[in-house]
Predict the structure.
Amino acid sequence: MGAAKANLDLYQGDDYFATVTVSNGGTPPDQVLAGYTAQAQIRLGPADTNDVLYEIAAAVNSPYIDLTIPATITATMQGLYVWDLQVTDSNGIITTLLAGAVTVTPEVTRE
């Protein structure tokens, strides 16, 4: 089973925040991600050929993963990128939950 598709639509110069809810259909919600860590990155393309451009802060609070990109980062972004969200369990097993495109709309108002 592959990662679910989730495209990010960002607005240049704005703070971005999203909450991902993770469920496996059986485990109590507060324990679904017990012992897991999360990592999310934005790149121009696949990891084998492209460096990490931006780290997305990914905080685990089972059953949620909070994703944050500050305005100081989105202000430097423009164009199209790719991203994914991976979790790692206490045994080191990595699972990619979400992946997709990142589109950044250029801002109009500036300070």
Summary: The first helix runs from residue 71 to 74.
